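User: My collaborator sent over this chain with a note saying "see what the structure looks like." That's all I know about it. Can you take a look?
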Amino acid sequence: MDDLTSWSLRKMVDAFRAKNVSARELLEAHLSRFETYHSVLNAIVVSDVEGARQLADQADKAWAQGEDWGPLHGIPMTVKEAFDVKGMKTTIGLPWLRNNVASQDAVLVRQLKQAGANIWGKTNLPTSSYDWQTNNLVYGRTCNPWDPTCTPGGSSGGAAAAVAAGLTPVGIGSDVAGSIRVPSHFCGVYGLRPSFGLLSSKGHANMPGGCHAMRHFVSVGPHARHVEDIDFLMREVLLDPRRDTSQFAMGLGKQRPLSTLKIAYTMDIGYPLSLDTKDVCLQVVETLRKAGAEVIEASPSYSFEEAFQCWGDVHGFELKQLAPWIGRGWMGGLLMRFAILRWMFGASTYAKYVGRGTTNNRFRYFLAQHTLDGILEQLDSFFDTYDLWLMPVAGRTAFPHCRTGASLEVDGQKVPYSDVTGVWNCVTSLTGHAALAIPCGMGRDGLPIGLQLQAPRFHDLFLLHAAKELEALLTPVGMPALEKTMG
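Assistant: Without extra context I'll predict from the sequence alone. Here is the result:
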């Protein structure tokens, strides 16, 4: 039997149902790989190994007796540490939550368990799940499986690293400003940021005694090494037919071949982009054209700077509401704007616009949402013309571990930290449409390069179908040779 940890989720499901492999064998294969590489990767930071072994044995016994727990019966999985899993710690990387044990499951976790999944571990994230690297004072730093001297991205860096390294077939992450897409791009895996509101984020990043103040832009979704596995999870497990948005998305999941699609691509939003990244994305454009798609360089009619500013006005205002009560007033906003955000992210556009949002009053907050309504209308008109929209995920490949906010290099040019990562994703998070990070090549530094393919709101299944056809045309990035990488 070949290495079970290299199998796709669908292959594991089919093999288990054909009784060619047991739930315990699948679990032990992943646990063995985890134990071998944990000291270097530090991707999975919370686990219940004995509980998982007991559940795997129960899953095998139940299957032998004719019981079917659901489409994920006995399949081992992980979720981001920010999701509540009953009986496991949820710290969000904050030292004062080090002993916080969840009393109930997040909605997505409950859906996975009801489908039969064996959730044995939780993956690392940055402090407060707020960075494009993965490092915190509770669990430490996570490394990129392609090169341990580099970051796997953030905030779902542990999730993407674990999937890329074969520690889990799929992982669940979350995305506000690229937190699913950037790690997917850096680690060479697929990552879906579903349409905003399509999946429930209840039980994600809960602060004991706090409220869910981040009302906009938070989407939760899966990482996998194959589009088919994300499509399977969405259709069979995560889309809840009781939710109106799910019913709508299911109705829009019509299959159309690439050769019939009109696709826009954007390579310039006014921020640096490495030649490697641009070349790989343009190669995908040519691949789509050869497949018969009509591919045109185009962008929505609104300016990306206007979108970025609007995103900062809304996000910054909501971000301040998560501060301790003493920080929610005007003094707290000034402190976040002119000290904390600049200390974290330097003199970047991100710090400028989010900082402005932290000092907004309620009128400016709702004015920003009025602006957002206009941008949404313009994007809907754009998608009336184009079926899909393609653009980079970040300005370069994974960068070496560094202090948050340190300047990064893009082809020898020093660029503000968040202007390499966040800008490409804030402007697309703003509108809440579906976005899928797709691994599509390697840079000259030997690190993966991805792009994001996007579709109108709630056309997630349509997007995944198109991506499956595109995946078949691309040279697979594959899995990193961990034995060589870890030296």
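A starting point for your reply to your collaborator: The domain at 4-298+386-485 is CATH 3.90.1300.10 (Amidase signature (AS) enzymes).
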